[in-house]
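FORM 12-B: Structure-to-Sequence Request
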């Protein structure tokens, strides 16, 4: 079996590794001219690290990242509102949660795929059913025939738009800035993810390597994202804890990435004949609970297991049955958290903060237990 994967993001690369370890050959087609180190970090939660453990990549990822044993929601002054102790899940699944530079992770995955054909500068423009499968047409004029296609081409997936037209992208009306900076965090923050919630805004930070911090900041906008300028970011978070202000100040403006936050309204069809969607192409989520890439990594594991066990149509059907309920749960939960984090009314903010403080540890643990549990195939 040969499979063509559209997209060389975390999901596409992980899927290729998982399939090739099952003896299934792949080709990857990526629209970018080169795979650059995007200035952002990524948190590989316990479920993602369980997959990388199965793929033989856990040790090298741990060596290149930083372990995270606590996820905290705080007030703008970094006074805790909610704390999730991840050590329980580390012991249960024998894997740590790792924060790592996205570029480092991409390099690890690509190095694992050295014999694999990764075709850069190949932007898909159309996918059409043909006698022998599918005809793929690219912007550079290339045209190929493919028997089986996996769409791993993200939120604005061409594969999804051409073959699965009944879907819609939802804008959260939030602007997000992401950066990586050289900064020495106080020792008590070095193995934690902290996210400070303010009024219609928030700021998160985590260490991804020694003296290297990944951070993200979000603000709600009313009409369009142009209401906010990257040049004023220090001012926007000027009343936050000194650590947060120092992190922003230490980051060069040209190294900060800006994007609007969107997701894919949950859709119930992820495959058609010999074409299947994974990751953001199937279930793009807002980044509010740190599960976007992790869910794509889970897709890679489940899909590879199904393709190893079943013929293609049955494999795609089983994959969808196993993954869709959990992925949709993550999308809905993440959307809700994003709305809660950006409340504006002071009374509602007070009630929210009180609810976070009073939520029992057992409830938080149960919710994360469901997220961190891999499907049984």
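FORM 12-B RESPONSE
SEQUENCE OUT:
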């Amino acid at each position: 079996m040969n499979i063509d994967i559209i997209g060389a993001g975390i999901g596409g690369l992980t899927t290729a590794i998982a399939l090739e370890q099952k003896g299934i050959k792949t080709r990857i087609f990526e629209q970018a001219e080169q795979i650059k180190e995007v200035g952002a970090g990524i948190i590989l939660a316990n479920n993602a690290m369980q997959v990388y453990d199965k793929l033989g990549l856990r040790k090298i990822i741990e060596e290149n990242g930083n372990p995270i044993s606590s996820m905290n929601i705080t007030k703008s002054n970094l006074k805790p509102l909610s704390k999730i102790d991840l050590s329980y899940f580390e012991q249960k699944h024998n894997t740590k949660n790792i924060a790592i530079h996205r570029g480092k992770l991409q390099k690890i995955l690509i190095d694992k795929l050295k014999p694999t054909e990764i075709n850069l500068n190949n932007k898909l423009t159309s996918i059409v059913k043909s006698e022998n499968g599918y005809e793929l047409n690219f912007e550079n004029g290339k045209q190929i025939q493919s028997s089986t296609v996996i769409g791993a081409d993200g939120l604005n997936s061409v594969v999804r738009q051409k073959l699965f037209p009944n879907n819609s992208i939802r804008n959260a009306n939030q602007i997000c800035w992401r950066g990586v900076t050289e900064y020495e965090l106080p020792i008590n923050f070095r193995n934690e993810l902290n996210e400070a919630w303010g009024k219609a805004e928030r700021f998160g930070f985590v260490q991804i390597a020694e003296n290297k911090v990944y951070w993200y900041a979000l603000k709600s906008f009313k009409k369009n994202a142009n209401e906010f300028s990257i040049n004023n970011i220090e001012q926007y978070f000027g009343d936050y804890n000194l650590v947060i202000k120092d992190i922003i100040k230490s980051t060069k403006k040209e190294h900060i990435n800006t994007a609007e936050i969107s997701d894919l309204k949950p859709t119930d069809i992820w495959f058609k004949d010999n074409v299947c969607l994974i990751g953001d192409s199937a279930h793009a989520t807002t980044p509010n609970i740190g599960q976007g890439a992790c869910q794509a990594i889970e897709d890679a594991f489940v899909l590879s297991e199904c393709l190893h066990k079943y013929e293609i149509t049955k494999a795609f059907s089983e994959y969808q049955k196993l993954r869709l309920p959990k992925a949709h749960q993550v999308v809905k939960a993440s959307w809700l958290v994003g709305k809660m984090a950006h409340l504006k009314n002071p009374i509602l903010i007070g009630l929210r903060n009180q609810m976070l403080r009073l939520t029992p540890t057992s409830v938080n643990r149960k919710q994360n237990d469901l997220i961190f549990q891999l499907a049984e195939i």
